[in-house]
Amino acid sequence: MTPTPESPRCTPVADSGLLVEFGTEIGDSAHDAVIRLDAALADDQIAGMTEVVPAMVNLLVLFDPVVTDHGAVESAVRRRTGGDAGQRPSSQRRVVEVCYDESVAPDLADVASACGVTVDEVIASHLAGDYRVFMFGFAPGYAYLAGVPDEIHVPRKRSAVRGVAAGSVIIAGPQCLVTTLAMPTGWSVIGRSPTRILLDDPDRPFLVDVGDEVVFERIDLATLGAGSTGRSGG
After folding, report:
1. 53 and 163 together in one domain
2. Which residue range forms the structural domain that includes residue 57?
3. pTM above 0.70, yes or no
4. Is residue 198 part of a domain?
5. With pLDDT > 70 as the criterion, what percentage of the chain qualifies?
6. Which residues, at least 6 apart from 229, have a Cβ–Cβ distance to it below 8 Å?
7. H helix or E strand, kind and range, residue 54
8. How many domains does the chain divide into?
């Protein structure tokens, strides 16, 4: 069965998890279903549920196998999906600054060459993207954004580059991410951001949440050096 937002595919994971899939390709329809179910489970928790992990097109429901089982959890999930079940929660608009100076954007020219456009056109396309946080993963605060325009889609590199600086703005295919730590990556580095994604707040550790809209705002190299704390959009 091909999973859809109206009829998800549920797959047992070990003895304490259920993977709920709403699609096979990254897109707004499947992810909206993920967000709605996540909100529904937060408002009306399933007995024995211990954690919910939303991702691009699926959601993992973890539970205590002493309290419940896969069948009961699946039944409860299906009562909360399909049709008009659940409402998409309100999201925030977050502004993330980005500098595209060549000194902090080592792959910008290569992306332009691969896509058959100029560097300025890559920058314009990136700024025009319709970005939304689809999931967290890989490292603390690594918010995977969907919405990179088709015109600047490039694949991952064949091998990762070590020591990519924190704050690097990186793209691969339809996804974009702002790194929070110095780590290796096979994505293309097209800019650098001073915006703080990791916050010193245990109740709100990250600037963005899954479902939030992200808008990139261009800054120059001097402003990058001055730093930023991040902010909500208007």
Report:
1. no
2. 9-79
3. yes
4. yes
5. 93
6. 195, 196
7. strand 49-54
8. 2
